[in-house]
Amino acid sequence: MKTxxxxxxxxxALVLASGxxxxxxxxxxxxxxxxxxxxxxxxxxxxxxxGLVATARRPENRTGILMTVVGFTWFAGSLAESDxxxxxxxxxxxxxxxxxxxxHLVFAFPSGRLETRLARAGVVxxxxxxxxxEWAWLSVEPRPAGPDCDCPENLLALAPDEGLASALLNxxxxxxxGVLGLALLLLFRR
Length: 190
Known about the structure:
Elements: H1 3-25, H2 33-57, H3 63-76, H4 85-94, H5 97-108, H6 117-138, H7 162-189
Helix pairs in contact: 1-2, 1-3, 2-3, 3-5, 5-6, 6-7
């Protein structure tokens, strides 16, 4: 990776971290803005910075790129701190993408490549859980941040159904545990 590219990516990460802090501290519905902002900034910047260093030191290994992706996706969830319904809904819809990206990193470790069919299946499952399943849940969940949250409207709630929303959320959690178990199995084999 060229130095110029790394500087641009690091600058972008700092801008996104600043945006996350701004959204968190101006949010009307975040009960603990200091902890939330600290978590968003520290994790996002740690992954981006580590990924850039790893890519610079070993450009043939894709682990650094995956770490950088995890860091950048971490900032997307901060959109859910917004008091704007469009940004809130977008942030909520993207909120667990970093966990899928992290699963990708774990399945691809140490080379940065998915070397087995099982690893590829685990990554596909992780991204499906974080996108398709999450968005299906959001389509029936009017209050994704909980009933006590004075949050903006979930614009993806097309057919609110609390029972179906609860079933989808519980199923998503079980599926995520399955992906976690698969990741641990593959790591143990290595």
